[in-house]
C-alpha cells in the first residue's frame, strides 16, 4: 500500500456523538440542523407509539406535526436530565398530550347537538385508542380497570415505555408507577380468568 494516499484511520478522531438532550438545547438556540437531527432520531419511534394508540394515520400525522412544532417553539423549556427527564420522555409527553387533544377535537366534532339529548357523554381518548389496538376480551378487561391503573398499563405495555418514562409522562413518582402497574396486572389476570 502506498503511504500518504489513504488517510491514516488510526490517528483520526471521530466527532463525539451528540445526544438528544444536546440537540434539544441547540434547537432552543435556533439551530435548525440540530432540530432536523432530533426529528430524524425521534420521529420513527414516536410515530410507532402514536400508531399503537391511534389507527387513524391522518390524526397521527397531525399529532406528529403539532408535536415537532411545539418542540421547536418550546425547546428552551426542556429541563433535561438535571430534572430527571430525558429528551425522549419530553417529546413523548408533548405527543401524548397532543393525541388526547386530537381525540377531544374529534369527539366534539362528532357530537351532533340536539335539543332532546340531555346527557351527552363522549368516550375518553383512551377508550377511543383501545378500540383500535386491542381485542374485545382484553379491551373489555382494560376498560374495567380504574383509570389510574389503565393509564400506567397503557403507557408501559401498549406504548412500551419504561417505568421512568411512564413516571415522567404521567407526572408520578416511579414507586407509584410500579405499584399501579403491579395492581393493574393482578386485576387483568383476574378479569381474564
Automatic annotation (TrEMBL):
The keyword Cell membrane does not apply. SUPFAM superfamilies: Sigma2 domain of RNA polymerase sigma factors (SSF88946), Sigma3 and sigma4 domains of RNA polymerase sigma factors (SSF88659). NCBIfam families: sigma70-ECF. Transmembrane segments: none annotated. GO terms for molecular function: DNA binding; sigma factor activity. Keywords: Sigma factor, Transcription, Transcription regulation. This is RNA polymerase sigma factor. Residues 38-107 form the RNA polymerase sigma-70 region domain. InterPro entries: RNA_pol_sigma-70-like, RNA_pol_sigma-70_dom, RNA_pol_sigma70_r2, RNA_pol_sigma70_r4_t2, RNA_pol_sigma_r2, RNA_pol_sigma_r3/r4-like, WH-like_DNA-bd_sf. Belongs to the sigma-70 factor family. ECF subfamily. Coiled coil: none annotated. It holds the Pfam family Sigma70_r2. GO terms for biological process: DNA-templated transcription initiation.
Amino acid at each position: 500500500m502506498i503511504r500518504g494516499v489513504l488517510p491514516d484511520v488510526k490517528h483520526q478522531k471521530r466527532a463525539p456523538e451528540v445526544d438528544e438532550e444536546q440537540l434539544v438545547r441547540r434547537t432552543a438556540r435556533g439551530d435548525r440542523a440540530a432540530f432536523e437531527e432530533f426529528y430524524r432520531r425521534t420521529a420513527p419511534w414516536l410515530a410507532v407509539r402514536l400508531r399503537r394508540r391511534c389507527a387513524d394515520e391522518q390524526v397521527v400525522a397531525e399529532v406528529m406535526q403539532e408535536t415537532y412544532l411545539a418542540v421547536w417553539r418550546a425547546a428552551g423549556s426542556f429541563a433535561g436530565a438535571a430534572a430527571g427527564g430525558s429528551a425522549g420522555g419530553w417529546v413523548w409527553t408533548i405527543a401524548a398530550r397532543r393525541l388526547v387533544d386530537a381525540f377531544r377535537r374529534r369527539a366534539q366534532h362528532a357530537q351532533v347537538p340536539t335539543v332532546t339529548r340531555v346527557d351527552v357523554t363522549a368516550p375518553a381518548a383512551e377508550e377511543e385508542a383501545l378500540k383500535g389496538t386491542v381485542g374485545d376480551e382484553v379491551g373489555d378487561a382494560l376498560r374495567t380497570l380504574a383509570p389510574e391503573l389503565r393509564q400506567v398499563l397503557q403507557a408501559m405495555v401498549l406504548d412500551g415505555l419504561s417505568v421512568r418514562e411512564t413516571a415522567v409522562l404521567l407526572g408520578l413518582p416511579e414507586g407509584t408507577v410500579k405499584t399501579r402497574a403491579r395492581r393493574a396486572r393482578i386485576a387483568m389476570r383476574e378479569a381474564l380468568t
